[in-house]
Amino acid sequence: MRRIPYASTIGSLMYVMLYTRLDICYAVGIVNLILTKYTDSDFQIDKDSRKSMSESAFTLNGRAMIWRSIKQECIVDSTMEAEYVADCEASKEAV
């Protein structure tokens, strides 16, 4: 059996659910609740390199599966951009 990306599959099912098949709303909603992603960032925490920190955690059925805290590779100019980079990195980790 080949590996199917979880986030991509859920996204496709949500599209189908919202636009064509309203009868699968409950099932897709339950599956979507199983895997949860939390992210946070600290803006330019390292004053010398001006790099921010990204923190992320994934839970499956309420239990922590993956967690990490890393220094972002790029220099960002705002807290919003730091949060965006943290979210993108966490999404890559999930897939």
**Mean of residue pLDDT?**
78
Task: Provide the β-strand percentage band.
Answer: 25-35%
User: SSE order, as H and E?
Assistant: HHEEEH
Structural class: alpha+beta
Number of self-contained structural domains: 1
User: How much helical structure, as a percent, in the residues?
Assistant: 40-55%
Question: What composes the largest sheet?
Answer: 3 strands, antiparallel
User: Given the C-alpha coordinates, what overall shape results?
Assistant: elongated
Weakly predicted, low-confidence segments = none
What is the CA-CA span between the terminal residues?
Answer: 17 Å
Q: Please tell me how large the radius of gyration is.
A: 16 Å
Oligomeric assembly: single chain
Number of helices: 3
Based on DSSP secondary structure assignment, what is the total number of beta strands? 3
Strand order of the largest sheet: 1-2-3
Keywords: Membrane, Transmembrane, Transmembrane helix
Transmembrane segments: 12-35
Protein name: Gag/pol protein
Organism: Cucumis melo var. makuwa
